[in-house]
Amino acid sequence: MSGFPTIAIDAMGGDFGPETIVAGCAVARERRPDTRFLLFGDEALVKPELDKHPKLAAVTELEHTDVAIRMDDKPSQALRKGRWRSSMWLALDAVRSGNAALAVSAGNTGALMAMSKFCLRTLSGVERPAIAAIWPTLRGESIVLDVGATIGSDANQLVDFAVMGEAMARSVFGIDRPTVGLLNIGVEEVKGLEMIKDAGRILRNSDLPMHYAGFVEGDDIGKGTVDVVVTEGFTGNIALKTAEGTAKQMAEYLRSAMGRSLMSRIGYIFAKSAFDTLRAKMDPRKVNGGVFLGLNGIVIKSHGGADAEGFASAVTLGRDIAENDLLQKITDDLEQYRRDQNLNMKIAGDMAS
User: Fold this and answer.
1) Residues 70-76: contacts with CB within 8 Å, 24+ apart?
2) Of 44-53, 136-145, 272-281, where does mean pLDDT reach its minimum?
3) What is the C-alpha separation between 167 and 173, in angstroms, rounded?
4) CA distance 159 to 180
5) Residue 231, SS3 per DSSP
6) Could you give the CA distance from residue 230 to residue 221 in angstroms, rounded to a whole number?
7) Is the entire prediction scored with pTM above 0.90?
């Protein structure tokens, strides 16, 4: 297979299975015709779907496996039953072996993270990986991490997240020096947990390709105050689910209001273009795809309930990241940070002696 390095796909993941996954790959191929795929899944289920898309089939290899990770499997169960043979594991192993540039799955998030850590391992010096999400804002888009991989983080781990986040911003947004903020309960330096304040002090004195903007609050996420918002996974996941729920709530309010009376329906007709613009801006399918950062390979987690358009967005995001050398940027920046820390410790030791 020639062209762009192959993308490995867990064809059995997600709420809707191969039908949506294959259709999403077809949409992604239409957007980027030189994309090639390696699909893992039950041939009896996947091949009929692949046959519906001849252009996709021409650039796809299908590897059969009858083992699939269920959406409700615990990570430990998934590792026991799915290691070596499941569609999820095989997609990750294709990245590990160099047969694919990245892996995309809409499957069980906990299982995917556990398998990714076991199969790909974390980058040198990275204690815990993070899940980064692209967040629509009033200013455009921002990156928020961690949104669910690591519950509770110390200062050094938050700094690692900041480094990985700014590298992703440079890779995805093309920003030379992204602005980075630590999510906190206030912008004042005296507020917040000690781990957040310690991380702030480290970032303020670092010489990384970022502009550390200090602490940011919850409402700054939607405003787009900074390019990268850093937090630990518990808080980040709550923020993500709250935002998703609020968006659905607002959409339902608008839908209900527009159908409440004849005048409302007439008003909707006149304002339809504005509502279409709003709908497009809030469409979660366009920003679908959580990026697993801190691993020796690129892994993209699509929302389990995503449709074909949404899954295609996750595939396209992964491709863009791979093309812009995200892993190399993260590795280089982490190495620079470690060197700076070692040098500062040496200078402090010399002064003390």
Assistant:
1) 70/108, 71/14, 71/15, 71/107, 71/108, 71/304, 72/108, 73/108, 73/111, 74/110, 74/111, 75/108, 75/110, 75/111, 75/113, 75/114, 76/114
2) 272-281
3) 10
4) 11
5) coil
6) 10
7) no
